[in-house]
Amino acid sequence: MSGLHITMLSGLMFVAVNFAWRRIPGLGNKVPTRKAATFAAVLTALIYALIAGFSVPTQRTLYMLMVFGVALWTGRRFVIAQVLAMALLIVVLIDPWAVISAGFWLSFGAVALLSFAMGARVAPPHWLKIAIQTQWAVTIGMLPLLLIMFHQASIISPVANAVAIPLISFFVTPLALLGSFLPIDWPLHLAYYLLEHCVVFLNWLNKFPVSVWQQHAPALWTLVPAIIGVFWMLLPRGVPLRWLGFFGFLPMMLILPIRPLPGEMKATILDVGQGLSVVVQTSKHTLLYDAGAKFNAQSDSGSRVVVPFLRGEGVKMLDGFIVTHDDNDHSGGMDSVLALMQVDWFASSMPEPVTIPPNTERMKCYAGQSWHWDGVDFEMLYPNLSDYENTEIKDNDRSCVLKITSESGSLLLTGDIERHAESSLVLENSSSEAAILKSDVLVVPHHGSKTSSTTDFVEAVAPRIAIFTVGYLNRFKHPRPEVTDRYKSIGSSLYQSDNDGAIELSFSKHRDLPQIVVTNWRAQRKRYWHDKF
């Protein structure tokens, strides 16, 4: 709300200077009162914008006020569309990367919507009617952008804004500024008291079961009919059939992401930095394998990457969740996933003291477990049950190793296994009638460390595609050159999450021929700053 606060403070300064300037003899003859008041208002806006952090919404308000100020000083008149366009141009010229910020689109979009919805009125309506119309225009008008950017929109925002915006703008902010500039404390205490009760009210609203609308990530093209629908609904009163604008939202809300066909699967190796998280989708089921790292008390890969991806894919429940072992880069996001997603069953090699929701089945992962989803086979290859009793085995070498086989190819997920576990798997592979390790795609063990991917293991798996999940410029220097050379020597195609971003593997059939299509995020959404100079 920095934009609203800037407008309020600059308006107050305009009134104060305008009042004082008229009462000081001779000043009005040197500089016209309105010009002096305008200059003071713009200067106040600039100072407050610098204090507030100079965010995109703050810049937008400041530049619009500057354009109005220039227009008044030069005697020119601008319509609101011209002022908004000039402010947008200034923001982009100063900070070209502002266009990749959500705040840029939401800030300018909201002002454009309000200008369209509230402009060209014959007579000003009652203030209460204006407030209701403003909330309606912003709520319905911002919905397409919110669903495209965040895959969710607040249902309680009209009520929350109706209380929070006036309270904070007209009471909390002025009191806080008054207490900051004057040697008195009671304004600060009163501001804190009001803000505390406002937060209590907002938390109460947030606990409603339908406080937020969440859905899949809409296709980008659905933004066009949604925006057309918004403008149709916001046309002036008297235009017939404005309710038809709701139909513009239907493609955005009803067209779901395409799921694999029976017998096919899609695996997405998420870019969680130095860690691992893989989402495997079949026709009707979803499995999550590891959840990335926890960065601090407020941030982890589960809440920042994994859950947003799952919601964007339209996944409302995980049929299975495997956490390979008790290392932060694999289990750090686990708590967020369990808190934010419904999970049918949870399997891991982690010790028992792990908090699991009461409606989620808990089990150990061990060799011999298998299940069948929608024509796709899942088989746990490691660890053995006896490995849990061997205290000499490292956590890495208890990682849950899972092989997934579809009609179009197979995928081997190995966690952080090292030489000991690889030797056990190679020995079992050589004694088995079937080549249990042979796989088309391998997510390379332990991020390509020198303690894993032994020559025997690499030759036993013989993957056509090898994927390294590593962080950019990670301190471990993964993947090690000698490890990548082993995979190159057998003809594997190599992918790295630090260079390629998220990697999507589509195991499907084309003209009845099995194929594995690899799509990496950096190639699909290429940006000029991804190029190497």
Task: Give the topology.
Layout: H1 2-21, H2 27-30, H3 33-52, H4 56-74, H5 80-94, H6 102-118, H7 127-150, E1 152-154, H8 157-181, H9 186-206, E2 212-214, H10 223-233, H11 250-254, E3 265-269, E4 278-281, E5 286-289, H12 301-312, E6 317-318, E7 320-323, H13 328-331, H14 334-340, E8 342-343, E9 345-348, E10 361-364, E11 370-373, E12 376-382, E13 401-406, E14 409-413, H15 419-431, E15 441-443, H16 455-461, E16 465-468, H17 481-489, E17 493-496, H18 497-500, E18 503-510, E19 513-520, H19 521-524
Parallel strand pairs: 5-7, 6-8, 7-9, 9-10, 14-15, 15-16, 16-17
Antiparallel strand pairs: 1-2, 3-4, 3-18, 4-5, 11-12, 12-13, 13-14, 18-19
Task: Provide the descriptors you would attach to this structure in a database record.
seven-stranded mixed β-sheet, 16% strand, 19 strands, 19 helices, single chain, 533 residues, alpha/beta
